[in-house]
Amino acid sequence: MKEHPFDRYKPFTDIVALQEYSEKPLRKSVRVNTLQMSIEDFRVRGRGREWKLEQAPWCKEGFFVDRPSPVGLRTARRPALGKDLLHLTGHIYMQEAASMLPAELLDPQPFDEAQGKPGEIILDMSAAPGSKTTQMAARMQNRGVIVANDIQEKRLWTLKTALHRSGVTNVVVTKKPGQWFGKHMVERFDRVLCDAPCTAQGTSRKDPEALKYSSQENIEKMSRIQVQLLEAAVHAAKVGGRIVYSTCTLTPEENEEVVMKVLEQLKGKVDVIDPREHYEDVNVQQAVEDSFCVQRCLSPTTPACRQAGYNLLPVIRLWPQTFDTEGFFCAVLKKIAVTREKEQYQAIPLQEVLLPASKQREIMAKFEALYDTSFMAEGEVLVRKDSQILLAAQEAVHTLFPVQDFALGLPYAKLLKDGRVRLAHEMAIFRGMQAKKLTYAVTEEEAQHLLQGRDISCANGLRGDLLLLYDGMCIGRGLAKEGTIKNNLPRTMIVNQ
User: Fold this and answer.
1) Count of CB atoms situated within 10 Å of the CB of 127
2) pTM for the whole thing?
3) Matching CATH number, 438-497, of 3.40.640.10, 3.40.50.720, 3.10.20.30, 3.10.450.720
4) Higher model confidence: residue 248 or residue 301?
């Protein structure tokens, strides 16, 4: 009989339970985007949809969602959760519960002017597709700066889409190998998230193909890359800064052993933070104990751990069967001494150009006249890229780096040839509910028509760009003319075809 990739874990865990849970469908889970709505509002809306909600053990914004089948239609297919308006308008983010843990453990702090706390500068070293970046931006209340980096351009476009849908303004997107930051941006970040590429064994519940990449050769290859990335993450962090290392795989070579090797290489300069200090509940205690069990079996590598001053590392290992999630791993480190000397660097200007204050006031005044609001908040500025105006946190604009950004800011408006400005769809779904004029309350039937890509009728007297409001949300824009509201929802919103 052919050996299963999980057979190697018999000394560590209940292999029968591991294989059983890895073949079960993954529970649906979402995270509330608190830039858009409160947790309580989400609970109310969930009850209205007859969803059964269970809070994720380690994230107060995270919920497992169980949706009932359509009444009387046992064989009917329910609309995908990703087609719910709460997701399409950025109020919730579909995210696996286990992947919410790294950003929670990184614990980025919000800007607090009253307490004299400046906005932090965070590095998300391998940020795409954006779940953890958007989670951190919400925790930081869109203040401070997050450098969201990835190396693949296709993944960066996915990241941008997630940022725009979620209303994120404090992120600078970059395209560099993660190792680059360990040389060129030494001690520049308050916190660093190193969610490393891996063999992804833990994702087999949603992607059985993942196990095809679990050869020993590939495991060892990924482990070498992970050590490089984690070491670079430590170099990039300030002394006293926090680093979180995470993967969605199960192999000790890519998890516990990577942390051990970096601790040995940077002996006395990096410490391990016990995650049980952050979470006092029994769930994280169990996850740490599960890693202890693995470490006790790693006889060839435990000497390196002891040489670094540890008997057992207090790190988190999530087996799929323990919490009915994906398999996952997290370690929290603290930099306690200089690991590499800083290099002087020359800042490279952003692609986007900060608009003069007078031009910003002019654009804001135009929207005030149209909608009785500028859709802007304190600490935000407008930048321009070609004909597009973007909204960005001022810290993100004024913090320069030795690399040109790939993207910055949230689409705010487009400059038209006749001098007018048109509110961007992304801005409409983010803050459209602030408008007091040029809004149109959409009925349920009209909402269905719009989501089918159809136009809807209106009074002949209505003219111009309208914000379409439905169920306490702005779902986008429409152009009213001669008794018809032309549907201007993007294709991504057209779900009932």
Assistant:
1) 28
2) 0.94
3) 3.10.450.720
4) 248
